[in-house]
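pinging the channel bc i need a second pair of eyes. not urgent but kinda urgent?? the chain im working w is below, pasted from the shared doc
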Amino acid sequence: METMNHPSDKRLPGTGVVFCDTVRRCRSPFILYIAVMLLLGPLGFAFNLMERGEDLMRYPWDFPSPAYCGCVIFLGASCVIPMVIFSYLNNRRALDVFHALPVKRETQFTGNILAGLFLLFVPYLAAILPVAALCDLSYRWNTIGFYSSGALWESNLLLVTVIAGIGLMLFMLMSFMMFCCSTVIESAGYFAIILFGYFGLIVGGSEMIGDMTFGYSDFGLTDFLLRFSPFSFVTDVVQNTRKQALFFLIQMLLVAALFWVLAFRRAIGRKSEQAGGYVYPPVYYIAAGGGAVVGTIVLDLLFSSGVKGLIFSVICGVLFYVILDSIRNRGLKNITRSLSTCGIVAVFFGVFVLCIHLTGTFGYENNIPSLKEISSVSVSSDIARLDSDFPLTDSDSIEQVLSVHHALVDNKETIWNRESDSLKNYDAFSFDDGEDAFSCGSGYVSISYTLKNGMTLKRSYQTVPVLLIKPLYEMAGSKAYAESIADTLDRLSELLKGQSGDSVLNVDLSEVLVCVGGSSRYCDFPDTGAVNFLSALAEDFRARPEGWFVSPDENPILSARFYLDGEDYNFNLYTIDQNVLSFLEKYGYCDKNGALILPGDEDTPAENADAYTIGILPASRESEFSDFRNKSIFYFGGFLANNSSWGIDEENAVHFYSTDDGLESPTIECSEYMMDKEMLKELTGLVRLLGISDTPQNVLFINGSTYLIPEANLEKVEALLQSRTRAVGYSIVF
């Protein structure tokens, strides 16, 4: 029954009256809610303060675990409070009474919404927000500089604020559902379907399209759409840095405003007779149809069994829709219409999947920009040893990337199906026989173009034949790539300069050449030392010769690893890197030759003394070892050899063994032999940890780690192994 009051009647109760009446009706759960929040917030902080009190001047106060529980309870309350306030909508008699009151619909809605927000936010802001503020202020006492990485969790105020935005969005969504459904159970059910369904549609749909698309890579649209779902924040699907979190908060507020408008319109237009057996049609079709599609996609991804799995998934999706339609209609009287609707949706779904296969995802697979459109390019690859953190802007490098990208597209069928066919339209290595695309193994290549119009185009390929990446491998050792690394180091150096207070760079310095026992040193470079370290490293990279990575003249002697600006960096150091080596020598971390100096001149032996395989693989022999055949001269995986797995006993002796694989080859025919660290250092000094060769070379392998043996050192390596074998009473055959 509609109220008959004129909108201009000033005697009608206002929003304030409705607000006070609603708060009064809900005072009991409100008192319990605020008591729980006070226990979890201030008391949790007090307990944490007492526990960490003696370290106040050394470490920041942690955001207490009970306060995190308070955030979870707040999100739960944002869903429950609208159910309590608008529960009268589910009872015909109560709804008649409320509609008959001398209060305008707009006033009722606004007063109830404001009361609900008051009940929801006052305990949260009074109990949790002050705790977050105190924890953030305590960072002023911290001298380690945690803010450098920019992680969201290091700003508690921002965390609390974003969660408040999520709570507001959930509150408005549930309020809208209460006006759209006739029972609390239906409101909660459709609320969950829409909330989880949207997240599942974006994630599952993106993954399904990616599985059907050659070179698919998330180009930002998925992340953007996920930010409209709170689960993108909770599950960390979207990287939660401070800048992105603020953007996420704005999106949550916009979604909350949208649901407020929709709820307001439903509050004005809903009739009393819709209190029973009613679901707002647009919400029903979105939830039921969308839920069926999401269920189909998720099941198809889980089964991944081709056409049969897809058919089974579609049947399950149809069943989901029929169940919801039966609940809505209180029976199966409209099952024919339900099945007809599902059939139409299934046809459209099948046509969509077919179009993806026939059009290359509507031209996505073949979309390669031209040279004149590209501003810079970043490449990440395990086989070419390129890192996307170091973009390239010179035309030669961009042309090299484009040549590989075109070759990938031209060989789509071979790569997609992992067929042992011949490759086409690519820059081949001299040792490539052109018969088997995967004869030298495979790896991943990810390409990201930054276009001159400001847009970004990304592609990702997972099973790229090694034979296709010659231009990329050469680019990894170019002066341009070294210059890009140096530019990144300069940027990081400027970042440290701009930090307030003292800055410390934590560097894990490891010995690469021998690496026996995993010798490493954890270094701290405080104040200007951190900046000088990065500057020295940048100068050395700018001095790297052409081909420094592809075919280095020497093995790396040290590896420097550090974490800064949210990224993990790992660089090999050579004896030519005099700037950074002199810097490390100044701080007492290595000697003038680059040898690592451990604290107290003590080495740490490995805990085990297991035996490992050692032997020589000649260039003329065919073998399946590590995906190498007679092209075993091609070694692409040696950024850091796996030396740390060699067994060291308490006497610093290294144990090895080898097995006879039934092939005629010069391998060591002994079950075990021992080699001290000095001899091991001599052995690894005769081989090359990484590199590439267009001419056959012998390969030394130790427990899966592969080393190229320069022709000039082959006799020395054989003699060293022979002498050591004879010394322990075994024989070696070459």
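so The mean pLDDT is 76. and The longest helix spans residues 184-212. — does that match what u expected or am i reading it wrong
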